[in-house]
Every structure is written in structure tokens, then in C-alpha cells.
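README: folding subset

This subset contains proteins for which both the sequence and a predicted C-alpha cell string are available. Records are stored as plain text. Below is the entry for Urease subunit gamma (119 residues), shown exactly as it appears on disk.
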Amino acid sequence: MVTATGPRTARSEDCEVGAVQLTPHEQERLLIHVAADVARRRRDRGLRLNHPEAVALITAHVLEGARDGRTVAELMASGRRLLTRDDVMDGVAEMIHDVQAEATFPDGTKLVTVHDPIV
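--- output ---
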């Protein structure tokens, strides 16, 4: 179990003692990474990805790439090489025209758009 300690606030007193408290933004990021992990495992087993799995995988790629110090241009390009039509279920490539992720770079937060990410 993961625990965190800090100053007690009215909000923290309502929560379970020792529970990790995440902001909505942190919860969203965590959900993206969990979904991307599921997608990776399914792809590794030879399964084709559905729409949410494909979007999560591309989004996590952008978020992690920004954390690693890659540029917006690099992530826009590499995001297009991550998945092919063979990696996704029929019709999924046509459903995803753009994937946008607000990523934190060393010089601030930027919106990264991967256009036509599944080739």
C-alpha cells in the first residue's frame, strides 16, 4: 500500500487515513498510463487495439516523451509511427483523426497534436 503524509485539511480528514490523494489532473494522467499499459500488454499478446486503447497508447507516448525532454515536433512525428492499421481493430484508424495531449516540457506545458496517428 502506498501512503503519503502531509498537513491535515478538511478534505483529507474525510479520506481514509494513509490514502494517496490525487488531483483530478493527476487522476487523469494515472488513468491514461494504466490504459496504455493494458493496451501494450494486449498488443504484445497479438490482440488488435480498440479506440480507447489506441488513444491511451499514443497519449502516454506523448506524455512520457515530453518528460524525457523530446520536442513537440519529435513527438508529433513519433506519435504517427507508434501504431499501424494492423495494430488496431477494423475501423479504428478512421475514427482517430487527431490525438491531443497537454504535456509538461522542461520549458512549460504545451499542447501536442498528433495528426492522423494510425497509418
